[in-house]
Please model this.
Amino acid sequence: MSKKRIVVIAVLLGVVVLGGVGAAGLWQYHEQPEFCATCHIMDPYLESWQSSDYGAAGHAEQDVACLDCHEPTVQQQMDELVMYVQGDFTVPLDEREYGNEFCFDCHEANEHTTYEEVIQLTADLEINPHASHLGEMDCGTCHKTHRPSEDYCAQCHGPVATGPGWTTEVTTTAEVQVWAPDMDCSACHVMDPYFASLQDSNLLAYTHAQEGLECLDCHELEAVEQVHEEAVAGGRIRPRTVEMEFCFDCHLPNEHTSYEQVIERTRDYVTEGEEINPHDPHAGVEGMEPVECSRCHQMHEESPLIDGCYDGCHHRAGLGSCNDCHEGW
Model:
């Protein structure tokens, strides 16, 4: 073999070797987060990975790089390059969605292998965000990577997750059923006073409970659904207003079928030595409408009854008794 041919072969081998080394080096470099920022639109994402209060920086501390979570094929990467060159993209970029199992596969060292284990990890918190009435939620509903994580529970319960890297401004609506007829009301509401009223013989709630009535007998399903549809996060739910016709429908056995019948039943009522019909206290007064049952008869708290006439209206106006206005009573 001639010396010239040997030189040519050597040069070709060198090109192949250098090309292979270069290709290997380029492939290795393309796996680094810095390579992603070759496209300028990726700068904020790299910066959040390098130093921030976001989840990306937490992953960086554990040597988790971009392609550990973003697992595109070669074809997908080529497509992304073409889209970038053509300007066929929007900023910020669409966020990738991950299922919980994807997170659990990587978080084994932290005992995040199942949702039940995650619940136990936060069991010591005053409000356990992972053991909520919403059931199992996607990790990504709250936990973000390249932007502040969102305290989803704060919409109703006030701040639960606080500190750097968290916000109470929620942009994602979880696909969960917030309320259902078969839910335990106490999952969201402080129900202890209402439950206690069912055991207090001085309250009407107790009387109704003794008759076998349950919550939804008065708080009708349709009304409850409307209340929850109109509810605003962080706001008080309006109390249930019951009109007298609703009461009459249920009180048929007690002859409470009309206001006239109720008036007749208490015609001989005497209070503080005065004969006064509490259901017709303004008899003969023009323009006075019947008083709604619920004005005096309260369910879950002490009812004002006839004393409510004095305390609520007459005493407030400086009147001592009905006779001050109604001569002869």
